[in-house]
């Protein structure tokens, strides 16, 4: 009797246990889901959830003293969903598709999936509310227009300088090869040639080249404006908009790029080079020039001096070089991403106003200082009014506040404590200001095309691929014309018609 | 008496007798219902103009429009060709690789050596495609890549492996074979281990050499395993995998690198055309199921065991 009971209990207990375990884990799952959903809502208490980018693999957690201080100042329980910048657009698109959205969502640009979400009414239109807030009401009109969708604001831009692009180059190499700072495209070409052939680092080896380019097409886009090509869209003789790649100037620029490639003045593997490795050849003395945002100059210089303290001011920066039609440069759109507010998580106008007040308050000097500088006495101190950083290569300390600026708008201005200006930093500021005089605006920046939202990726791929193929010599001029024809038949013609129609409505 | 009892036992009684076994089955069934079958009804969005913010019930029905759009798309034949070529190459070059490797391993005499080799060849399977793509880049790049150093030594000039369309497919095949061949031997080695040793002994007595034994004893013993795995593989015929292709494609080789999986990503995820890309995915699955059913029938006709 006793034995059979024992056996029976054995028989029962095991399966029972396993089912219990399973069901309890299921319950646990649904529980945690519930709590996370609740914390996503803002009305329950003073909680605001944010999804934004992180550049550091370890962005500040809730135990960071700076984060706590920021929450105290904002009088809000802040929940940040950090997503690494490199995978942000994927994560964003998946989150958009899921429909489970945070209160504030950083949108990196007017990507098609965001536009279609806006068309489905998923986001609040913020334009009419901005005037009610002391900081947001001072937003820059041009940048607002650039970040708008057909003139309507669905996200508050994160401000960036308009004239941010430039040429960063090795100043010491330039002296070694006996050349002056380039003024024209020809000068620029000569510099690249000398950097490749005249042993600029003086080590007696043929181990340098002119300019490093990566898979990222930014540098080509910047350089083609030097030749007078428009920024994405330009007016033709009849005043209609046409895409930049249909212009003569664009083709001239392409031929120049091909010459650089053929003569080995740029890295041969650029078409497959990971943009993350883009800066390496400059830092380790293989390449002498990089065309990118001007801030790259001081970042490169700091890294190079850290690696080799013997170097003295190795880097210089300029905005652009003169082409056949004068000085031109590519502007940024004046913003880098925007903070959008989904209707599914922020349900009422009252809640919306609370979230907007939150974003507005983030621009106060206290909040900005926390986000950019950290805590006084821990991360920085002030000596005679100058900023002294205390974080000197201490990753753990830096990680307590780095990336907190990823939900800062900087509207109307930067109010955090600025570092003391080195000569190079001062020069960067000058270049940025000078750039604003010569930048080529994109007349269609604010226009939102239906065709582009549907086929933009394919259309862009056709032209970008053809451009790269032309540079490396896989196709010739006729081949490039074929690519344009393909672009037109894939929907490009509809795109042109639509943009022109929208353009006429606005102007 | 007792024998008669067991033969007349009813289904219900059997169910009662084995109730605990059946209870153990419940978690498995639940798993498939919840995680495999329930999400499947999401396929309906292939027949809608789906918007995540309106939901499945709020979105408009469009019938087969997404499919028609897809088949009429100028991209369709290019995608089909690229996907098909990669799939065929996969069957021809990758599928036999683990079989050959496990046959070779099976011939090894020293057991400790055999096990060590087995363990080592599993390792690449656990690396992510990102790592493998980086390794490939480092090896094959024209700026100081080891492969290109060797090539230029013998051939006189470097070859742009990473950016020429003609090298894309060999690279992809090479990567798959390098990564997965060792892991693929697991099943075959298990099948080989179950071969009756007496048959070998009998074959030796009959005077069969090594190759004869391999041909007449070993291969027939694993034939059914090979057929089953081949049929299962056909179910995923058009799956080229997204990550690997995506990581290896660039502006210069896109003409051969665009496949259904990357297309679904670009159109579905980056452009928000969820319905359209679901239709593409469904098309792939339908092709897969047709191939599986066809191959299964064929296998049975040829006197092999199918999978059902």
TrEMBL record, chain A:
It comes from the Bacteria. Keywords: Cell membrane, Lipoprotein, Membrane, Palmitate, Signal. PROSITE patterns: PROKAR_LIPOPROTEIN. Pfam families: SBP_bac_1. Residues 1-28 form the signal peptide. SUPFAM superfamilies: Periplasmic binding protein-like II (SSF53850). PANTHER family: ARABINOSE-BINDING PROTEIN-RELATED (PTHR43649), POLYGALACTURONAN_RHAMNOGALACTURONAN-BINDING PROTEIN YTCQ (PTHR43649:SF33). This is Extracellular solute-binding protein.
TrEMBL record, chain B:
It is a multi-pass membrane protein. The chain crosses the membrane at residues 21-47, 84-105, 126-147, 167-193, 214-232, 273-295. GO terms for cellular component: plasma membrane. Keywords: Membrane, Transmembrane, Transmembrane helix, Transport. The keyword Nucleotide-binding does not apply. InterPro entries: MetI-like, MetI-like_sf. It is found in: Cell membrane; Membrane. Belongs to the binding-protein-dependent transport system permease family. This is Protein lplB. It comes from Metabacillus litoralis.
């Amino acid at each position: 009797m006793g034995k059979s009971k024992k056996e029976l209990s054995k028989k029962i207990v095991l399966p029972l246990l396993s089912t219990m375990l399973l069901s309890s884990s299921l319950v646990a799952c649904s529980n945690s889901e519930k709590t996370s959903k609740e914390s996503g809502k803002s009305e329950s208490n003073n909680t605001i959830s944010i999804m934004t980018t992180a550049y550091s693999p370890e962005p500040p957690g809730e135990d960071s003293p700076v984060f706590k201080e920021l929450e105290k100042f904002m009088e809000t329980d802040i929940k940040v969903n950090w997503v690494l910048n490199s995978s942000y657009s994927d994560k964003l698109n998946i989150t958009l598709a899921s429909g489970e959205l945070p209160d504030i969502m950083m949108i990196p640009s007017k990507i098609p999936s965001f536009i279609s979400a806006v068309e489905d009414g998923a986001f609040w239109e913020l334009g009419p509310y901005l005037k009610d807030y002391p900081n947001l009401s001072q937003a820059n009109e041009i940048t607002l227009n650039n970040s708008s969708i057909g003139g309507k604001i669905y996200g508050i831009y994160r401000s960036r300088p308009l004239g941010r692009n430039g040429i960063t180059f090795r100043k010491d190499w330039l002296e070694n090869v006996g050349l002056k700072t380039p003024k024209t495209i020809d000068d620029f070409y000569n510099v690249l040639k000398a950097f490749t052939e005249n042993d600029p680092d003086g080590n007696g080896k043929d181990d340098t080249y002119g300019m490093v380019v990566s898979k990222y097409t930014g540098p080509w886009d910047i350089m083609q404006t030097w030749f007078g090509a428009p920024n994405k869209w330009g007016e033709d003789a009849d005043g209609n908009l046409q895409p930049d790649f249909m212009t003569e100037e664009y083709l001239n620029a392409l031929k120049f790029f091909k010459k650089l490639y053929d003569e080995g003045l740029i890295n041969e593997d650029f078409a497959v080079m990971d943009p993350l490795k883009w800066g390496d050849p400059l830092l380790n003395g293989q390449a002498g020039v990089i065309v990118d945002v001007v801030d790259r100059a001081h970042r490169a210089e700091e890294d190079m001096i850290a690696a080799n303290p013997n170097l003295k001011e190795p880097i210089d920066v300029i905005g652009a070089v003169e082409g056949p039609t004068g000085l031109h440069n590519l502007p940024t759109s004046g913003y880098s991403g925007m903070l959008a507010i989904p209707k599914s998580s922020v349900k009422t106008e009252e809640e919306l106003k609370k979230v907007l007040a939150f974003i507005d308050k983030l621009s106060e000097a206290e909040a900005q200082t926390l986000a950019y500088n950290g805590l006084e006495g821990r991360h920085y101190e002030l000596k005679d009014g100058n900023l002294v950083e205390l974080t000197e290569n201490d990753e753990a300390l830096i990680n307590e506040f780095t990336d907190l600026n990823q939900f800062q708008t900087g509207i109307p201005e930067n109010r955090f404590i600025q570092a003391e200006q080195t000569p190079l930093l001062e020069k960067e500021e000058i270049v940025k200001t000078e750039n604003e005089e010569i930048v080529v605006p994109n007349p269609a920046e604010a226009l939102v095309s239906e065709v582009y939202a549907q086929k933009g990726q394919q259309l862009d791929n056709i032209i970008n691929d053809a451009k790269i193929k032309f540079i490396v010599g896989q196709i010739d001029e006729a081949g490039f014309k074929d690519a344009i024809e393909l672009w037109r038949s894939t929907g490009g013609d509809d795109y042109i018609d639509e943009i022109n129609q929208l353009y006429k409505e606005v102007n | 008496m007792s024998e008669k009892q067991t033969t007349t036992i009813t289904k219900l009684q059997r169910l009662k007798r084995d109730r605990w076994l059946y209870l153990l089955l419940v978690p498995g069934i639940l798993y498939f219902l919840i995680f495999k079958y329930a999400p499947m009804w999401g396929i309906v969005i292939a027949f809608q103009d789906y918007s995540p913010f309106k939901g499945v019930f709020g979105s408009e029905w469009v019938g087969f429009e997404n499919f028609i759009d897809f088949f009429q798309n100028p991209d369709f034949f290019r995608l089909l060709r690229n996907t098909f070529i990669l799939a065929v190459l996969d069957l021809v070059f990758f599928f036999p690789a683990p079989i050959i490797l496990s046959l070779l391993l099976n011939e090894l005499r020293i057991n400790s050596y055999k096990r060590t080799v087995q363990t080592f060849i599993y390792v690449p399977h656990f690396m992510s495609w990102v790592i493998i793509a980086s390794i490939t880049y480092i090896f094959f790049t024209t700026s100081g890549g080891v492969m290109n150093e060797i090539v230029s030594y013998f051939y006189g000039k470097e070859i742009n492996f990473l950016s020429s369309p003609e090298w894309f497919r060999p690279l992809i095949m090479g990567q798959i074979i390098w990564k997965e061949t060792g892991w693929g031997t697991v099943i075959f080695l298990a099948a080989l281990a179950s071969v009756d040793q007496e048959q070998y002994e009998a074959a030796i007595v009959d005077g069969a050499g090594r190759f004869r034994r391999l041909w007449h004893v070993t291969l027939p013993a694993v034939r059914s395993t090979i057929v089953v795995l081949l049929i299962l593989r056909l179910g995923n015929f058009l799956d080229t995998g997204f990550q690997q292709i995506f990581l290896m494609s660039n502006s210069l080789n896109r003409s051969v690198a665009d496949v259904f999986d990357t297309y679904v990503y670009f159109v579905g995820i980056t452009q928000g055309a969820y319905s359209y890309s679901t239709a593409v995915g469904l098309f792939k699955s339908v092709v897969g199921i047709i191939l599986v059913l066809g191959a299964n029938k064929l296998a049975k006709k040829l006197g092999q065991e199918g999978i059902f």
